Every structure is written in C-alpha cells, then in structure tokens.
Amino acid sequence: MAKTPLLTKEKIKAKYPNQWLLLEDIELDASTSLRRGRVIAHSKDRDEIHRALKKYAGNLCVHFTGTVSPDTAVIF
Amino acid sequence: MPRVVFDPSVSSIVVDLLIEAADGRSSLVVPVVLDTGASLTILATDIMARLGYDPANPELQRQRIVTGSGIEYAPRTTVRSATAIGQKVTNLDVLCHDLPPESGADGLLGLNFFRQFKLTLRFRKGIIELNRER
Asked: Number of structural domains, chain B?
C-alpha cells in the first residue's frame, strides 16, 4: 500500500479537522511540538486510534486536531 | 530557550509529550493538558500499555487520587523519560488513568514534571517557556 504524504501540522489540521490521528515518520521541533508527519489512521473516535496503536511499531504520534468546545469549561 | 506558542482563548493548554517506551527502543508522542493543579503526570492506560509499561500489572502501586468528582485509585509506575516543551525528565512517575475523549488529550502534564524547571506562562502573548533553574 502506498504511503500517505508527509504533511506539516498545519496541513494535517486542514485535511483532517476535528479528528484524532495516528502519525508515523514524525518530526518534532526544538520544543517537542509536532512539526510534520505521515497520517496512518484517523477517526472522530479516540478509541479507534488507541486500537490502531497496537498495529504499528516504531516512533508514533497521537494528535488531535480539534479543540474543546468553547461552551465547555475544563477541570480535572 | 524552549517555548511553545498557544491560543490564550482555549479552554485548556495542550502540549505534546514524548514518552520513551519501557524497552527504550521506541517512543510515542501524545497530547497532554498542562495542569499545575495535578500533583502527578497522568497518561491513558492504552498509551501506557502500548509503551510496554503494563498498567494491568497487579504488582504496581495503586495511588490514591483526589479528583473533582471524588476519590479514585490508579496504578502508578515510572517511565524511562518524558520530554515536553523542549525539556526532558528521566524516571518520571506516571499514573495510568483515562481522561474523557472530550478533553482532547491523552493525559495531564502535572507538577512532578515541572518541579525542576522555571515555568513561565505568558497568557497575553500565548507563550509557555520552560527553563532549567540555575
């Protein structure tokens, strides 16, 4: 199967809005923030991405392109 | 100087956390909420299992935790290393506990990560800086 293209974080967010992603071939910047990667799984459901984690080895990245709804306050 | 830019209007500040696997051969980057109200760093059980830390191991200490909704108990273990905002901490204690998917994160980056650094939150500019104290 052909690999998906290597995309910057900005392009990933535009192509997969409000989704959980699993990426390989990742590159981080000096502040440990994702700079670019190759999407190997994407879903609105975080559990699907966690299940996909079991299928892949190596250095990976879980990334969420959405934000918490502005009408929701967050406390832990 | 390690720094992360964030949107000051968001409900919570999420940063990338790089965690080294138990065997040292791989790593995983996950989104975590910067939480100075959390004593310890927390990571989802699926994430910890993928990294080989076995949160189901009955021999792990079960840590009592006080949450906004009551008292809970979670397995506590130590990861080889964790890196965020350009700074690496080795042998970091982590609780294995799941946050709801609506949090947009796979865990919390708590005080035990930040204790050896100077953490600066510049809310008006949306900048986080993390530096070693001399």
From this structure: 1
- Assign residue B21 the CATH number of its domain: 2.40.70.10
A27-30 LR contacts (CB < 8 Å, sep 24+): A28/B16, A28/B18, A28/B29, A30/B2, A30/B86
Each residue of A25-41: pLDDT tens digit?
A: 999 999 999 999 999 99
Segments making up each domain of chain A, as ranges: 6-64
Q: Is the pLDDT score of A70 beyond 80?
A: no
Give how far B98 is from chain A: nearest CA, Å.
11
The domain of B9 spans 3-132
Cβ contact (<8 Å) for B86 and A53? Answer: no
Q: What ipTM was assigned to the predicted interfaces of this complex? A: 0.95
Taking an 8 Å Cβ-Cβ cutoff, which residues of chain B contact chain A? Answer: 2-4, 7, 10-12, 14-18, 26-31, 33, 35, 37-38, 44, 46-47, 50, 67-68, 83-86, 99, 101-106, 108
